[in-house]
Amino acid sequence: MKLLPAVFCGVVVAGAVLVSPVVHADDQLAASMCDYVKADDKNRLRKVLSDYRLRLRNIYDGVTCNGDSLVRFAIRNNAADVGEFIVKQLPAAQVAASGDVAWAEGNGFAASPLLTVIKERAGGGE
C-alpha cells in the first residue's frame, strides 16, 4: 500500500520537472522589446532579457510588433544587428519553419542583409 503513493508522488514530480512552462511577456516588456528592435539596439534587448531572466526562444512566439514577429519587424526596420541576434537565439528548426525568407522576398525585402543570416541559420545557406 505504501508503494502506490510513492509511485504517484514520483510521477507528479517527474512531470513537473519535465514540463517547462512557456513564459509570456507582458505588454510593457513587449513594447520595450519592439522599441529596441526598431532602434537596432542589440545591447538593450540583451539587457532587458537578462534583467527579466528570459530566454528569447521561450517568449518569441508571444511577442509581436505591429502584427509582425520580431524577425519580420527587424527586417521591416532594417535592424540587421538585432535581427541577427534574434535569429541566433532561436532554434534552427524554428527559423526554418517560420517562412520569413519567403515573406521577405514576397514583400520587397529581398535585399535585406538579414536574409543571409536567416538562410544560414535555417540550413539553406544560399
From TrEMBL:
Keywords of the record: Signal
One Pfam family hit: DUF3718
Signal peptide: 1-25
InterPro entries: DUF3718 (IPR022193)
Protein name: DUF3718 domain-containing protein
Source species of the chain: Rheinheimera soli
Top-level taxonomy: Bacteria, Pseudomonadati, Pseudomonadota, Gammaproteobacteria, Chromatiales
